[in-house]
Structure formats: C-alpha cells, structure tokens
Specification:
52% of the residues lie in helices and 10% in strands. It has 23 helices and twelve strands. Helix 16 crosses helix 18. Bound molecules: adenosine-5'-triphosphate (ATP) and magnesium ion.
Length: 442
C-alpha cells in the first residue's frame, strides 16, 4: 500500500489501476477457453492457489481470433505446480516455468514475475539480463509488454482483471506498451519487433508514444542474442502477415539488425519483386493453414544476395558452379551470424539454391536425376517464383511443370537436343590442372 502510494506521489505509477470486469461486460465465456487451460486453473484453485489464463490467448479471444496456445499465470511456485500434474516438465533456465501436457495440448504455466527492474541485472544499454524474481499479480501485469497482453481471465469468477487499461485499448484497436516506452524497449529490444508483428497480425495501430522511440532505438537489436532474434523473426515471417510486417520493419529501420542486407535486396527491382512474391505466397499459405517451410522462405529472402555474389564471381572469371558454392557460403556467413539461422535450415537452403542452375539442363539423363532428388519439389517451387518475378524465362518453369506431370514417353519426347556443352565442360574438368568439380548437392 505504502509503496504504491509513494509511487503514485512520485508519478511513477503508470497503471490506471485495477479493474475487475464482470463476464457480462467483457463477453469471454468459459467455452472460448481451452478445456486444458481451464483444467490447469481449476486444479491450482482447488489447492488454494490463484490462477489465471493470461496473455495472447485472452487478447485473441476478445478479438474473435482462435488462440494458438494458452498460458496460465499463478502464485504457485514451479516446484509446487509440477507435482499436481501427471505430465509436467520444468523448463527454462532464465526463468523457470512448467509445461503441463494434457492430451494434445501443452499449457505453459508460469509463476507471477516481479518487476523490480531497478535491481535487475542489465547490460550497458539497459537490456535486462536476469530478472528471476517472483512477484504478485500486479507485478506480473506490469512486466508484460503491451496493455492488451496483460489481461487475466479468472476461471473461477469469469472476471477479467485489467491493471493497465488493456480492454479500453483493445476497443480502440491500439497497441500500447506498459510503462515508459524507452525503458521498456531498452530492457528488451525484441519488444520493438513484437510491436510491429502484433500490430500487423491483430490489425492494431501502435500508439504514438509507444512508436516514437522505435526508430532511434532500432540499433539496440544488435545486442540481442541471435537465437532469440531468429525465433522472433520466424514468428514474424510465419504470422500470416509477413509482407506487412517486413514493410513496417523497414519503415521503422528495424530490419537492419536481422537481415543486414534486406534493404539492399529490396532496392533491386527484381529482388524486391521476388521477395514480395515469396512473402505474399507464404502469407496466403499460413492464412489457409497449409504448411510453410521456413527454409524456403529464408532461401527466398536471401536469393538475390546469392545471385549478386554469384554473378560478381562469374564476371571475375570463376567457373559457374564453384562460384555459386562460394557465393552461398559468403551470404550465409554474413547473414546468419546475426540471425543464427539454424544449421538444419541452412542445409536445405543450400540444396534449394544449388539445384537452380540444374533446371537449365533439359537434355540427356539430367532432368530425371533432378526429379529424383528429395528437395525437387521445393526447388521447383523456388524456380516458379524466380520465373514469376521475371528472373528466368517463364518457358523454363512451364517446361518443368509439364515434365513433372508427364508420363515417361512424353518426358522423353520433351527432352531438348544435347548441345554438347556438357561434354565439352566435362572434358575440360578432367584436365589435371582443372578447378575442382562442383560439390555434390547435399
Ligand atoms: P502470439 O502467441 O500470438 O505470438 P503472444 O502475445 O501470446 O502472441 P507469447 O510470446 O506467446 O506472445 O507471449 C505470451 C505473453 O507473455 C504475452 O502476451 C505477454 O504478456 C508476455 N510477453 C511475451 N514476450 C514478452 C516480452 N518480450 N516482454 C514482456 N512480456 C512479454
Ligand atoms: Mg502466445
């Protein structure tokens, strides 16, 4: 009480105060909440703990969107939560929480976190390195990022608990950070990316004082550990609103910390067309709930970088395929340093890129060999995108489309006459002083 009073006198109290909103006024019913999340809350309540459904799920239900997953916040400690459920795992090093598995669902259960941001360990830019303290419900609400993400659904009473005016912001379709924007973005620069992503995904406009410091603070993303950036970038690209998000990231100057060369790519007319098409296609797939390959998407985002490096090497007289191999290495090294694109992903990206020149070979046995490769379909989709952006003749893509669907006899008839270019190349390669043969496709 006293602490709160002092905060208010000093003008530090940024929360408009606790509001308990009755079910009849907010309209979220138990039916909208997953049975597993309700079960977790009920079990905790039976043991005398308080437990609420919180975060993105409550926000999404209020907006009429089906939530992806449900999170529960409680005053029970991780070691008190775990034994209450048959299948539960303690996870997280920085902040321990419990994953409760009920049927096909996993509910993330976390203990209320404290916000003593003054004593939290920070780097020289204000980024919080450790904040492993438990707190009260009110503390927990204050450390969440946006007001619309700090709404707590009380499964027992059906009330919504709102400390920061999140309900009013949702009605106004506004995304507003809790507390002082600059401090909150310094504490965790990823919040700037979240502002862009959630704004685009939910159709909320980022409130002006929340938005104001973003351009200036954008360089702070450089200090965020690459795996964390990668995780957020993936969420952004697979949000179903990737085009809008990337456009917005670029407007805010936030893209530089993630894909350092994205602005260069987007300034080349063919590159821009290619990336725009790839993003539009991805959004369409996500929104119609079809699977999307992150490797394909990253391969597309970086393709024009690979192309530029490849062509430059060819111009300097390097042989075509080895030049492509080196160009791929170069681009992946520059780009994935910041973003920590996983090895599994870069392996697939390489395969897709390395197969591209092979689509030009439409004689002899080569088209069959290409068709047999496990990544053929992905590489062909990539070729289709290149054709649609005007980078390769549409005729090559339509040939491959027809070739895939044709029977053996038609395929044989489709083959182009062997020009002998390959024979010549092969002979040259056999010379003892020749450059190394192209690396096999992985
Ligand atoms: P979605 O799941 O749709 O991407 P979300 O808001 O649920 O959006 P999560 O990453 O699942 O995002 O986070 C769950 C909740 O945790 C958020 O709603 C927010 O309350 C809190 N949260 C997440 N990231 C941060 C952060 N960087 N700073 C403060 N609070 C955060
Ligand atoms: Mg979520």
């Amino acid at each position: 009480m006293i602490k709160r009073f002092i905060r208010r006198v000093l003008g530090l109290d940024d929360s408009p105060g606790l509001q308990r909103v009755a079910q009849a006024r907010h309209g979220v019913t138990r039916n909208a909440i997953s049975a597993s999340a309700l079960k977790v809350c009920d079990v905790l309540a039976e043991r005398g703990y308080s437990a609420y459904v919180v975060g993105g799920a409550v926000r999404d239900v209020l907006l009429g969107i089906r939530p992806k997953d449900f999170d529960v916040a409680t005053n029970a400690r991780p070691e008190q939560i775990k034994p209450l459920f048959r299948r539960a795992l303690l996870i997280g090093r920085r902040f321990r929480l419990v994953h409760v598995m009920l049927g096909p669902e996993t509910i993330e259960v976390s203990t209320f976190r404290g916000t003593d941001s003054k004593s939290a360990e920070k780097d020289q830019h204000g980024r919080v390195l450790r904040d492993n303290v438990f707190g009260t419900l009110e503390d927990d609400a204050r450390r969440r990022d946006f007001t619309v993400n700090a709404l707590y659904y009380d499964c027992k009473t059906g009330e919504l608990i709102d400390y920061h005016g999140g309900l009013a912001d949702l009605k106004k379709r506004t995304l507003r950070i809790i507390g002082d924007p600059e401090t909150r973005f310094r504490e965790d620069p990823v919040r700037m990316l979240r502002a862009v992503r959630l704004g685009a995904k939910l159709g909320l406009s980022v409130e002006s004082s929340t938005r104001a410091p973003i351009k200036r603070l954008a360089p702070l993303l450089e200090h965020v550990p690459p795996p964390r950036l990668f995780e957020e970038m993936l969420k952004l690209l697979l949000s179903g609103h990737a085009s809008a998000c990337l456009r917005q990231l670029r407007n805010e100057g936030l893209h530089k910390g993630m894909l350092p060369l994205l602005d260069v790519i987007l300034e080349q007319p063919l590159g821009e067309r290619f990336v725009t098409l790839a993003l539009a296609q991805t959004d369409e797939r996500v929104l119609s709930e079809r699977p999307v390959s992150p490797a394909f998407l990253f391969a597309a985002l970086l393709w024009h970088e690979v192309l530029a490096a490849w062509k430059a090497r060819e111009k300097r007289g390097e042989r075509r395929i080895p030049a492509l191999e080196v160009a791929m290495d170069e681009v992946l090294e520059t780009q994935s340093g910041k973003l920590a694109i996983t090895r599994r992903l870069t392996a697939t990206m390489r395969e897709v890129w390395a197969m591209q020149p092979r689509f030009e070979e439409r004689s002899g046995q080569r088209p069959w060999r290409l068709l047999d490769l496990p990544r053929f379909r992905m590489a062909y989709d990539f070729l289709a995108l290149r054709a649609a952006s005007g980078e390769v003749p549409a005729e090559i893509e339509s040939w491959w489309r027809a070739f895939q669907g044709a029977d053996e006899e038609t395929r044989r008839a489709m083959l182009l006459p062997d020009t002998g270019a390959h024979k010549k190349r092969r002979r040259r390669r056999r010379k003892p002083q020749g450059a190394p043969a192209p690396a096999p496709v992985e």
